[in-house]
Amino acid sequence: MAQEIIYTNLVIEAIDDLVASLGTPSVYVIVDVNTAKFVLPILQSQSEAVKNAEIITVLAGDVNKGPDALQKVWKELSDKGATRKSVVINVGGGMITDLGGFAAATFKRGVRFINLPTTLLGAVDAAVGGKTGINFNGLKNEIGAFQDAVAVIISTLFFNTLPMQQMLSGYAEMLKHGLLDDKATLAELMRYNIENPPATPDLLLHLIEKSVGIKQAVVASDPHENGARKTLNLGHTVGHAFESFAMDVEHSPIPHGYAVAWGMVVELILSHMKLGFPSDTLHQFAQYIKEHYGYFQITCEQYPQLLQLMAHDKKNDTPEHIVFTLLKDVGQPVIDQTATADEIKSALDIYRDLIQ
Amino acid sequence: MAQEIIYTNLVIEAIDDLVASLGTPSVYVIVDVNTAKFVLPILQSQSEAVKNAEIITVLAGDVNKGPDALQKVWKELSDKGATRKSVVINVGGGMITDLGGFAAATFKRGVRFINLPTTLLGAVDAAVGGKTGINFNGLKNEIGAFQDAVAVIISTLFFNTLPMQQMLSGYAEMLKHGLLDDKATLAELMRYNIENPPATPDLLLHLIEKSVGIKQAVVASDPHENGARKTLNLGHTVGHAFESFAMDVEHSPIPHGYAVAWGMVVELILSHMKLGFPSDTLHQFAQYIKEHYGYFQITCEQYPQLLQLMAHDKKNDTPEHIVFTLLKDVGQPVIDQTATADEIKSALDIYRDLIQ
Question: 20 to 30 A from A6, CA-CA: which of A103, A306, B260, B355?
Fold first, then answer.
């Protein structure tokens, strides 16, 4: 079943039209404690479908995206009489669309679900691509399934409740899609000031639509992540290492999107070293990241630990081969690129010079 | 990915060839305490693939096919280092192929699995059709996924460790496929004496192959159970009611296949009443069931309870419409047939006369 993506700020109409078209006897809305407070009341007061729906609330945050929350959702769906014809609406960030999507994909061997991402990161990233799942045994998304929503409703309506840090975190994924697409798209994104946006909210919706379109095209060509989809890992090999290092070693977590932003700078440096990525574009991009995201502090004493974290990334089967997606130029990704420890250390040196 | 079905009593060769062809770095074998004792040692001593595999053992029986066993399998796969390229081999009855299949389908969003059913029912029924899952919240298969194995190895090699009751239980599903297929198939099945089989074991393997082929053709035409696949519910509306009644009311469980055998007799009577199913075939079939399965005792005082159980079967959305698959003749099923309470009571009366 093809997944429909609806870009609109008329969210209520979109939900009610969708639910009516699905001809379902019953609707179940999954929220976390935040969206229960900030988003659900708006939907309940205005949407016929949500007004009559059963509500399932879970704790917020990735730390709660585990088997306990999964069983809670399964149990409430079961107790509240959901059938194979029911529809689940996931209202929240990536945590809710991952968890709720997986619960729906496995309840009675699969009920239909709609995603209503309420964060920029969720809109751009987690709501498209068919990835659902939970963290398990201390590992992110260790358990899950590939299952598309019947529809994803993308809106900027609920972003005003988000802290700027979370907006910037989502915007990093959009910058990544710009790097994968072409120079015009990247330039358009770098002209838009997410920290001080113009008064036209539709411009952001337009940028999101373009960004999701880029991801969709990649995912459609490779639904099970065997080839082209690896291009979406740009920035993530180094980014994940920064994220884990901040969390586990420094005990001072950084937002995922920030880690990816800094990771992209390092990986563009590697791209320049190994594939001739243009120096001027690298410098402009690094400058943009420095201005908006600041700098993730590392020292050369920490390189061995960072290299070890890169080697343990789940995309890497063997520690000898740390695999990256690199760019020959904007819009020209090359997957399955390896780099030696010395090359990576040089890139980290240059990163520190560039944006410190 | 198409599911391969291999009918062979050269099980060791089949496993080793399959695993070699899958080019996998690691194999995980899921067994219950029974197959760990009776089947696993044979495989470990002779199969290269199983010799080097990690073994995951769970408690036996449908009562243990729940979220705890699921988490145990997930955890051991995770702890023992299974990757997306690993292969899981499920060795056991339907409980193991359901549980292990679901665990594999959801571990890291899906690893490949091979089913080696060790019971007749598992070989005929549970190993084909892509249904995986667990019981949850007191409901059978409440949680699960549609996911084919890469291969199912069907063999009669391990049946000699099974009690006759379990063989007969599996054989009832084969009789059902005979009723759905044609007169020649049904006659062949009714000639074969499962309780006193001829000395040619390959004859049973041949009958299983034919039976699975019938189910495969139905499932292939309707993978998500929206239409033709409902024909496979023949005998099950009444059968499930008998099974639940024996379990929950009389506290004296009966094997699933026995319940289906008696359920088929009642539903053939309904077929005769409503669609003109031939009387002589009905009598021959009832006689066969009486001889091999005996009689499930019911009284007319119990009819209201039995009707209520039929109305609560998961295939029925509303209690007013109890839905059956009935037959115009052998090989001519008609789905979505309803019957009134009076008609069902008459059929139960005739059932008692026929095989008491």
Answer: A103
Q: Which one of B108, B133, B143 has the shortest CB-CB distance to A142?
A: B108
d(Cα A222, Cα A220) in Å, to the nearest integer? 5
Residue B318 reports pLDDT greater than 90: no
Kindly state the tokens that stand for A152: 């994803």
pLDDT, one tens digit per residue, over A165-179 is 999 999 999 999 999
Task: Name the average pLDDT for chain B.
Answer: 92
Which chain B residue has its CA at the smallest distance from A98's CA?
Answer: B109
Closest CA to B94 of B188, B166, B193: B166
Over residues B307-324, the mean pLDDT reads 74
Residues in chain B with CB shorter than 8 Å from the CB of A111 are none
- Rounded distance between C-alpha atoms, residue B267 and residue B325, angstroms: 8
What's the one-letter identity of residue A40?
Answer: L
Q: Which residues pair with A143 in a beta bridge?
A: A134, B107
Instruction: Give the model confidence (pLDDT) of A85-106 as tens digits.
Output: 999 999 999 999 999 999 999 9
* Cα–Cα distance for residue pair A20/B82, rounded to 1 Å: 43
Contacts of A4 (CB under 8 A, 6+ apart): A150, A151, A152
B143/A contact by beta carbon, under 8 A: yes
How many angstroms separate the CA atoms of B9 and B208, rounded? 13
Task: Give residue A222's pLDDT.
Answer: 86
**B25 to chain A: nearest residue by CA?**
A317
What does the alpha-carbon distance between residue A78 and residue B142 come to, in Å, rounded to a whole number?
8
Kindly report the nearest CA distance between residue B322 and chain A, in angstroms.
17
Interface pTM (ipTM) of the complex?
A: 0.86
Percent of chain B with pLDDT over 70: 96
Residues in B closer than 8 angstroms to A79, CB to CB, are: 137
Give me the pLDDT at residue A319, please.
Answer: 53
Q: What is the largest CA-CA distance in chain B?
A: 61
CA-CA distance, B156 to A7, in Å (whole number)? 56
With bands split at pLDDT 50, 70 and 90, how would you rate the model's confidence at B1?
Answer: very low
CA separation for the pair B218, B267 (Å, rounded): 20
Domains and CATH numbers, chain A: 4-161 (3.40.50.1970), 164-356 (1.20.1090.10)
* DSSP helix/strand/coil, A155: coil
Spell out which residues of chain B touch residue A133, defining contact as CB-CB under 8 Å: 106, 109
To the nearest whole angstrom, how far is the Cα of A120 from the nearest Cα of chain B? Answer: 24
Mean pLDDT of all residues in B89-111: 97
Q: Does B191 touch chain A (CB under 8 A)?
A: no
Partners of residue A109 in chain B, C-beta under 8 Å: 131, 133, 141, 144-146
Joined tokens for residue B257: 């296949």
Q: With beta carbons under 8 A apart, name residues in chain B contacting A105.
A: 145
Nearest-angstrom CA–CA distance, A349 and A105: 45
Task: Output the average pLDDT for chain A.
Answer: 92
User: In which element (H, E) is residue A131 found?
Assistant: strand A131-136
A214 is written with which tokens?
A: 């880029």
CA distance A108 to chain B (A): 5
φ, ψ of residue A335 to 5 degrees: the values are -85, 170
Task: Enumerate the residues of chain B whose CB falls inside 8 A of the CB of residue A110.
Answer: 145-146
Is B273 strand, coil or helix? helix
Distance from the Cα of A97 to chain B's closest Cα (Å) equals 15
**Residues 315-334, chain A: which have Cβ within 8 Å of B?**
317
Residue A236 is encoded by which pair of tokens? 């993530």
Q: Note the pLDDT tens digit of each residue in B15-55.
A: 999 999 999 889 999 999 999 999 999 999 999 999 999 99
